[in-house]
Amino acid sequence: xxxxxxxxxxxxxxxxxxxxxxxxxxxxxxxxxxxxxxxxxxxxxxxxxxxxxxxxxxxxxxxxxxxxxxxxxxxxxxxxxxxxxxxxxxxxxxxxxxxxxxxxxxxxxxxxxxxxxxxxxxxxxxxxxxxxxxxxxxxxxxxxxxxxxxxxxxxxxxxxxxxxxxxxxx
Length: 170
Description:
The chain is mostly helical. The chain has helices at 3-25, 34-54, 57-77, 81-107, 116-144; strands at residues 154-160, 163-169.
């Protein structure tokens, strides 16, 4: 395990969260913040890959935790708790459902050998989890991070006793 790589990965995740906080301070920023969730996911992939390459399960679990919690934390920094909950649901349920589906489909493939069905199921589940994680990351980064739409113009009238009220928002 190279300490420099671990430090660089941690810095990438920190900078993505710091960018989320800095952007939330600027109220007039019309663009979305999808790049921040993408940077967090890239950092998670680097941590997960570094843990797998170094044979460190703890580091691999840290990468998995960064993937699951990185997007929701960024949504919370931007003041969107509903989007954070949706992001957490996407990042946990979509890979699990896709992994189950991939394992089920691959298990039924024609094969010969004693452990063939088990190996097919594991391979299909692995591909399904990967596809589900990529899909969750894309949906989170492209759809959940869009800026809030402008409220439509509104006119309101009110009558009470001897007074007439008029309100407009453009």
